[in-house]
């Protein structure tokens, strides 16, 4: 880079320090800055590329911001692509817990009953939060799987937990829960009667 390439700088900048609107030399430009050792060669100091820390001569603040933005976008795309699989695994784990959970006792004197109720509330809130962050196709798929699971795992001891899960679906997407669950309940009541 020689002095002839610096003539593209604004003339107002040159006129403030050099008579006759002459372009400053590269040495004068670098020496005039309080952070002269940090200004990249050939870069006009401005609010966009004024360096705040030492960096390679070819890099500017704008370049660093662009790279950080690209990295953030890439990370979010990767996380978004993994969410559906993660939700499926999470929901399978919840169903395994429900199938092995004992029936919460009605009395508040029992320590195990209190623990079961507390765990049920915590799990219910976590399921509700996961469902509210999921899209409609994912909720529909999970609700369908849940309905299939209920038909094959109707255990009296975990009835309250299954009711809690149903409420989570209703809060997350009432229309989907109604479309998936109500016809199955109606069919069961009409054709087979209530469960024993």
Automatic annotation (TrEMBL):
Taxonomic source organism = Vitrella brassicaformis
Q: Which Pfam families match?
A: HEAT_PSME4_mid (PF16507)
Protein name per the record:
Proteasome activator Blm10 middle HEAT repeats region domain-containing protein
Q: Where is this region: Disordered?
A: 1-26
Residue span(s) of domain Proteasome activator Blm10 middle HEAT repeats region: 66-185
Q: From start to end residue, where is composition biased (Basic and acidic residues)?
A: 1-10
């Amino acid at each position: 880079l020689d002095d002839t390439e610096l003539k593209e700088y604004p003339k107002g900048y040159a006129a403030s320090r050099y008579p006759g609107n002459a372009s400053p030399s590269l040495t004068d430009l670098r020496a005039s800055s309080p952070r002269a050792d940090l200004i990249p060669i050939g870069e006009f100091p401005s609010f966009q590329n004024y360096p705040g820390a030492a960096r390679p001569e070819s890099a500017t603040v704008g370049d660093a911001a662009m790279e950080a933005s690209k990295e953030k976008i890439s990370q979010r795309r990767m996380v978004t692509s993994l969410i559906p699989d993660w939700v499926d695994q999470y929901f399978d784990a919840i169903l395994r817990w429900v199938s092995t959970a004992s029936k919460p006792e009605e009395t508040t004197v029992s320590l195990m009953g209190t623990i079961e109720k507390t765990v049920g509330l915590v799990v219910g809130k976590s399921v509700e939060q996961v469902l509210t962050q999921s899209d409609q196709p994912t909720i529909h798929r999970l609700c369908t799987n849940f309905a299939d699971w209920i038909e094959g795992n109707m255990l009296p001891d975990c009835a309250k937990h299954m009711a809690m899960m149903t409420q989570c679906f209703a809060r997350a997407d009432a229309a989907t829960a109604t479309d998936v669950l109500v016809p199955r309940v109606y069919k069961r009541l009409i054709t087979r009667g209530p469960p024993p």
